Amino acid sequence: MKLGRSQMIITWGILALLAAASRSDAGAAFPQAAGGNPAPAKHSAAAKESAAAFEPLAHWRSAVLAGDKAALAALYSTAPAAVTKTSQGESQDPNAEVEYWAALKPRGLSSFTIKTLEIKHPQAATVVLVLRYALTFHTSTGDVPYVDGASQLWVQQGNDWRIAVTQRGEMAPPTARRLPEPAVPNTRLYPDPKEAGPEISSALTEATKDHKRVILVFGGNWCYDCHVLDTTFRSKEIAPLVNANYHVVHINIGDYDQNLDLADKYQVPLKKGVPCLAVLDPDGTLVFSQKQGEFESTTRIGPEDVTKFLEQWKPKR
Length: 317
Prior knowledge:
Layout: H1 12-22, H2 26-29, H3 45-52, H4 55-66, H5 69-73, E1 83-86, E2 89-91, H6 94-102, E3 109-120, E4 126-139, E5 142-157, E6 160-168, H7 196-210, E7 213-219, H8 224-233, H9 239-245, E8 246-252, H10 260-265, E9 276-280, E10 286-289, H11 303-313
């Protein structure tokens, strides 16, 4: 996936900047912890699992599926006014987003499935979600599927959570894939960018012991193609090949602004998109790195492409 494509899913950092730039009273949308510093995100497994089932998102989905304008309106901030960014431009009219989603039910919306790709807590009482969703419309000629993606910044206002900033793409028919897709994406697939160095060192240590190689997968939780590739690596057909020959390390590139030094070191051209892979020997020597964005779009590759890659670069024993 490349940032800048029409199907782009933006990350929380861009959303935060958009919100701050879009209104002078941004502080109301981003409450600060005591002392004026952002409160640290909770790192316990229980907290993260709870965030994965962010209840206000379920209420939003139900309101969309029902075409309930009143319920939708209650979920968007009015003071300050919610900001929406689409390919048509930017709007600070929360009613525009309410009208957009409420209009889907009269058009025949019959199912609405949401996958949460990434969850962030940029400041206290704020949650940013990166979403991919599938919609089905019932028409006179049959059911018609669409997919789209969005990012939402939710803020807590009193006892309620409301959407303060949204960026969404444009619905389009789904592209057929031959690789398995995650039923529930792992929102912790890519750890904190700061963990990349230690995780590489740990993987190389293990590879020295068991004579495997190390695969570095550069990407981010916001990248659906990254989730698809991980699901493929874990599939029953391909997992045995991965487990027998490799240690896999996921390198978080943030908003294409993190771990750029590692991308340079291992000759990974991030401008070609992610996921992008590099293969290392146990001593850290670079064996191979993808140069042409070979796995950047998982709609263009199949299981045979992934298997060929893994077979080609597995250690020679």
